[in-house]
Amino acid sequence: MEKIALAQINCTVGGVRDNAQKIIEFSRLAAAEGDKIAVFPELAVTGYPPEDLLLKPSFIAGNLEQFRRIVASTGDMIVIFGFVDTDGEKLYNAAAAAVRGKLAGVYRKILLPNYGVFDEKRYFAPGKEAPVFNIDGLSLGISICEDIWHAPGPVYEQARTGAKVLVNISASPYHIGKVAERSDTLCRCAAECGVPVAYVNLVGGQDELVFDGGSMFISSAGGVLSRAAVFKEELFTLERAVCRRPEHSLEQEEEVYSALTLGLKDYFRKNGFKKAVLGLSGGIDSALTAALAADALGSENVTGVFLPARYTSKQSHDDALKLARGLGIGFKRISIEPIFRLYLLSLEEQFSGLPRDCTEENLQARIRGALLMALSNKFGWLVLATGNKSEMSVGYSTIYGDLAGGFAVLKDVPKTFIYRLAAYRNRRSPVIPESVISREPTAELSPGQKDSDTLPPYGVLDPILKLYIEEDASAQDIIAAGFQEKDVRRVVSLVDGSEYKRRQSPPGIKITPRAFGKDRRMPITNGQKP
After folding, report:
1. Cα–Cα distance, 370 to 388 (Å, whole number)
2. Residue 483, domain member (yes or no)
3. Do the Cβ atoms of 103 and 96 come closer than 8 Å?
4. What pTM was computed for the model?
5. Closest Cα to residue 260, out of 86, 425, 33?
6. Residue 358 annotated to the active site
7. Could you give the 3-state DSSP secondary structure of residue 33?
8. Are residues 174 and 292 in the same domain?
9. What distance in Å separates the CA atoms of residue 405 and residue 372, rounded to the nearest whole number?
10. Other C-beta atoms within 10 Å of 194: how many?
11. Looking at 11, 22, 42, 510, which residue is catalytic?
12. Is 118 within a domain?
């Protein structure tokens, strides 16, 4: 495997010409280093996942045009890359092997995932054969992602029929725990087959998904020989690799922070956005969002806006200003109090005789959302929403208020993990004021308000949410696990009743095994009783 180069590249969905050019350039770099084989990720030509672009004949044609261009560009080195193949009627998730300007073989993915964020059976037909490709004296078992995850499966057939190296091209998205899970699966496969594995994975952000890379070489005994960097492009070979620890070396907080940073950076870069704006409340969610934005986009491209009203404390102002100065981002202060008074005056007759409640609280959030969107329109800044998974789960958010925005970086990050990420970021450099971390969470929308007035403590809430959302546990299961029945019934009811809000929330980066959106597709109208 010493002469195999794993090209862990960052592709853009739909950018077939640019993706093909990157494949050609990385192939030439590998050839210049004397490598024999260059291997690229799953659907590297189209980017992953291409979704309903696959329903457009012109897109398929463009993909095939670039496929032919790549094949024609190959010299003496074998180039293996992912593309969309067709027999004229059906589409296939395929891998091509080319050398000396000619196609040496095509493998069509056999096992099509149709769970979680995957929807491949909507678009692709399964391949039928798991051949061994004999190219220039090399016996290669080429497969695609899911085909190596199951035993027995296609790669086991390739090993049985003479493959000397199992080459797997993948687009495996990140979530917490996925890196170790993936490594364990690949190592088990190599050991059971008795054949070494060369595995290449996509890297980069695509809408709500982040691909971590982590390409690796695995011995026939099932041990990781070397692993590529995570969350970075790399042309990686066993021969030139700097010795890396076989196990994944990033702590969980660093891993997640890296995923969020890359996902945010690529969302901006690939969609043509340059600058971000967000509301700075003095709370931990907006503080962490600002830190991520500064790290991903550069502090000069981020503006924080402090939007106080009558219930906003001086501490909130001081913390927001200190954070902005520490990060080096722009800072604006716009009071919403005059607008809030006008709203109350306009509604005074309609609300006459009625007590104040969440209506008046939500007005403040919506005014803030409108002002941030006005700045977005005027200056071309993309608004970053700052809500977290805990709040999104139970509907502790305001439509057209704090849900307003183009991207929600923390959408899949539970509140308790927010604190861990803030502590990690401060270990790198202390930019988030300690008072922000130690302060009890509050939206400051009414006198003395605390999140705990409405919700169970986050240390109780988040484990319940994990069981209900990520593990599909029933209310009875959660109660049996030791949680108070009143808390469980309340949380489950809030989650189920907030689906309509989540459908109107901006996209955000998936970091848990089950995120809202493509991962968890619940009906809004739902008569099931918890």
Report:
1. 20
2. no
3. yes
4. 0.93
5. 425
6. no
7. coil
8. no
9. 8
10. 11
11. 42
12. yes
Exposed/middle/buried for 211, CB within 10 Å: 0-12, 13-18, 19+? buried
Domain count, the chain: 2
Do residues 151 and 69 both lie within one domain? yes
Contact status, residue 205 vs residue 266, Cβ threshold 8 Å? yes
CB-neighbour burial class of residue 500 (10 A; exposed 0-12, middle 13-18, buried 19+): exposed
Catalytic residue among 145, 187, 189, 193: 145
Helices (H), 140-231: 154-160, 178-193
Active site residue 145: yes
CATH number of the domain to which 407 belongs? 3.40.50.620
- Give yes or no: residues 269 and 217 share one domain: no
Mark which of 218, 241, 264 sits at the end of a domain.
241
Other Cβ atoms less than 10 A from the Cβ of 38: the count is: 26
The amino acid sitting at 292 is L
Same domain for 101 and 203: yes
Looking at residue 74, its amino acid is T
Q: Which of 11, 22, 36, 109 is catalytic?
A: 109
CATH, residue 14:
3.60.110.10
324 and 180 within one domain: no
Per-residue pLDDT of the chain (530 residues; tens, 9 = 90+): 679 999 999 999 999 999 999 999 999 999 999 999 999 999 999 999 999 999 999 999 999 999 999 999 999 999 999 999 999 999 999 999 999 999 999 999 999 988 888 889 999 999 999 999 999 989 999 999 999 999 889 999 999 999 999 999 999 999 999 999 999 999 999 999 999 999 999 999 999 999 999 999 999 999 999 999 999 999 999 876 654 445 446 799 999 999 999 999 999 999 999 999 999 999 999 999 999 999 999 999 999 999 999 988 899 999 999 999 999 999 999 999 999 999 999 999 999 999 999 899 999 999 999 999 999 999 999 999 999 999 999 998 888 888 899 999 999 999 999 999 999 999 999 999 999 999 888 887 788 878 777 888 999 999 999 999 999 999 999 999 999 999 999 999 999 999 999 988 899 999 999 898 888 888 888 887 66
Same domain, 70 and 218: yes
| Secondary structure in 3-state letters for 421-443 | HHHHHHHHCCCCCHHHHHCCCCC
Long-range contacts of 29-32 (CB under 8 A, 24+ apart): 29/235, 30/5, 30/77, 30/235, 30/237, 31/75, 31/76, 31/77
**510 in any annotated domain:** no
Q: Are residues 265 and 201 in the same domain?
A: no
Q: Give the list of residues 6+ apart from residue 221 with CB closer than 8 angstroms, or none.
A: 190, 191
The rounded distance, in Å, linking the Cα atoms of 434 and 414 is 20
Q: Amino acid identity of 518? A: K
Residue 41 contacts residue 23 (beta carbons within 8 Å): no
- Round to the nearest angstrom and report the end-to-end CA distance of the chain: 54
